[in-house]
Amino acid sequence: MGFSWAMFSRALFLVLLLTFCSSGAEVVTVDVHATKDPINSGHKYLDVSLGAEVVTVDVHASKDLINSGHKYLDVRTVEEFKKGHVGADKILNIPYLFNTPEGRVKNPQFLSEVSSVCNKEDQIIVGCQSGVRSLSATADLLSAGFKHVSNMGGGYLAWVENGFLVQKPNAEL
């Protein structure tokens, strides 16, 4: 059995989930059949240490929400974004972290950059490569007063694994 990015991202998500739980965070599971509202049906709510309640939406529900008009905020680096990204009409690329010689550092302008192109009432799905950066970015956005922001579980890797529409540079098509 070979290496699978999907398995890696799932394992990483579980490690993060366990970390949040051991730090006193609360995890609540919602009944999938309780409502037809895709934001409130069958998703995990993570009360992260920042105090924001982050809704993580699986990749299938994310695709439906994006197709219904939600904005997609890709928080990967510009380099990652240019290699390929979620196929969506309303897509933004605002990196949450930058790669530096010292390692990854948080984009100090992240919230102001998002605020310059989105208002706090916009419906936004936040994604990254595997779902880790987007979880933190979503928590920051919620703490900053954005009201309808959800994290896309599994990130771009899950999107690709499910065969959903991807946009790549013309040279790679």
Look at the structure and give the CATH class.
Answer: Alpha Beta
Strand content: 15-25%
Number of domains: 1
Tell me the radius of gyration.
Answer: 16 Å
InterPro entries: Rhodanese-like_dom, Rhodanese-like_dom_sf, STR17/STR18/HARC1-like
Domain Rhodanese: 66-168
Keywords: Signal
GO molecular function: catalytic activity
Q: What does this entry show, briefly?
A:
With 173 residues, the protein is of the alpha/beta class.
Can you walk me through this structure?
- This is Rhodanese domain-containing protein.
- It comes from Quercus lobata (Valley oak).
- Residues 1-25 form the signal peptide.
- Keywords: Signal.
- The chain is α/β, with parallel strands linked by helices and 173 residues long.
- The chain has a single domain (5-172), classed as Oxidized Rhodanese, domain 1, CATH 3.40.250.10.
- 35% of the residues lie in helices and 24% in strands.
- A 7-stranded mixed sheet has the order 1-2-3-10-9-4-6. Strands 5-11 form a two-stranded antiparallel sheet. It has a two-stranded antiparallel ribbon with strand order 7-8.
- The chain starts with a helix and ends in a 6-residue tail after the last strand.
Task: Indicate the topology.
Elements: H1 5-22, E1 27-29, E2 44-47, E3 53-57, H2 59-67, E4 71-74, H3 78-83, E5 85-86, E6 91-93, E7 97-100, E8 103-106, H4 110-117, E9 123-127, H5 132-143, E10 148-152, H6 155-161, E11 166-167
